[in-house]
Amino acid sequence: MTTTLPTYEDVLTRYEPVLGLETHVELGTRSKMFCGCATGFGADPNTQVCPVCLGLPGSLPVVNAAAIEYAIRLGLALNCSIASWCRFSRKNYFYPDMPKNFQISQYDEPLCTDGYLDIEVDGEAVRIGIERVHLEEDTGKSTHVGGATGRIHGASHSLVDYNRAGIPLVEVVTRPIPGTGALAPEVAHGYVTELREICRTLGISDVRMEQGSLRCDVNVSLNRSGAGWGTRTETKNVNSLRSVQRAVRFEMSRQAGVLDAGGRIVQETRHFHEDTGATTSGRSKEEATDYRYFPEPDLVPLAPDPAWVEQIRAALPELPAARRARLAELLGATPAEMRAMGNAGVVDLVAATTAAGAPAGEARKWWLAYLAQRANAAGVEPAELGITPAQVAEVIALVDDGTLSDALARQAIDGVLETGRDPAEIVAERGLRTVSDTGALGAAVDEAIAAQPDVVAKIRGGKVQAVGPLVGAVMRATGGQADAAVVRALVLQRLGVDS
Amino acid sequence: MPDAPSAITRAEVAHLARLARLAVTDDELDTLAGELDVILTSVARVQQVAAADIPPTSHAVPLTNVLRADEVRPSLPRQAVLAGAPAAEEERFRVPRILDEE
Is B94's Cβ below 8 Å from some Cβ in A? Predict the structure, then answer.
């Protein structure tokens, strides 16, 4: 079916999107949810499995206490109520990714309920309602063989690795999110980004989307202005932050196209394609699964002691939003500047550089410009570049007291990155020092003037901007150690021209 | 067809069989529907004695919070793991083509 999709702007004039996000986070426990198998990513296939996670007859699951604590941490960070009593349920389905033919999950009695997460999108505060956070076990990993692109379509058979089966997962389910309008894709992106930051801060997961330790299902529906909510679709396993944004945007346009043509939206699972940014229909309605949930008879109920929950609450670290607010205040940064630093991954570094004595504005400038550029060129995070905030603060101090120009400061930084030694040593060893003494520069300036009479004539004729070659010659003669502004002023003064 | 209303219909048994990926013949459906009906009717009798002061339970032992510390225990040797697989390939379980989803 190749219909032309309406433009995004066009969609918004007639429809209001409603979002819903289901995010799975693999918890970073050492052992699995219900057995002692290791959880490391990338192990040889089927080397981290045992009778429990293989579902062999007679094996019994036992709940990992750390997984419960991690889930409670997340629930508290998302302002949820923690159940005083809840149970695990069996979700029955026949699919080879679970060797037991069921997944242990939570159904009508989740561990955490009824919370919210405040995010900021384009300078606007948006509150995302959290319906529930529940615990379950991850499934095995299937590789489809014989198909064109490793997809399930056209495959002749599949190969299954159960290392991942039984790794603890939390599923975070939002309430429907109406009223986001044109910002819907950014709200979805902003929510998953913030949730990822929170999980990282809580130390409960490495939240690496590219390794599947954070995965997102995106629900989208459209309603016509004033009408009730439309039928939703669920796009499964959207595995990058950018894809979350793209999937929402695509579904909005696709659904608008169907509705415009007088069609109906089918409630269905859809697949997102990274290459085209499109979604395609998955499981059809006839295949809609009947999971026949019932309380897991092999596990006893879970009743977290309120005192334990309060202990966990008291030990929560400073959460990302509070931290950003504190740092913005400390660094005197605007929201836009905070975003720029956040995107570059340098907020902590700027704060530490400021703590080491540098003015906040200078610290921000160096980390956002030259240092971010060097990190980018080296393909590493700024924090792994090989220069400490204290060393950066030292370079900034040397610029401040006039010892180094910006150009020389960059050379000093290069020296630190090459050798790992402190800026003062690099400066002393390489003789980096601004030559601003006009007496010492005088000879170099006179030489440059004598060597380029044609340039001199132009300047005297009124073309002050022609001074570049003379300044360049002086900079070369002094090995880059002169201050270009000082040289320029000096040249013009010698020629008797006003700058 | 039995005269009394059944606890489970033949259609429900067919539906469950399909969910369980079991190929059940028409004859077997008749037999199973009859047998399951007897089982469910018997179990339903328990509900008649469950008074309001008896809370429903999913476990025979009144315990909560049976937890284990987050410690890694040895897994099975892979040879033993795959020995139980009907077929194996590239150190993985080989399974027939999964229902076509696209």
Answer: yes
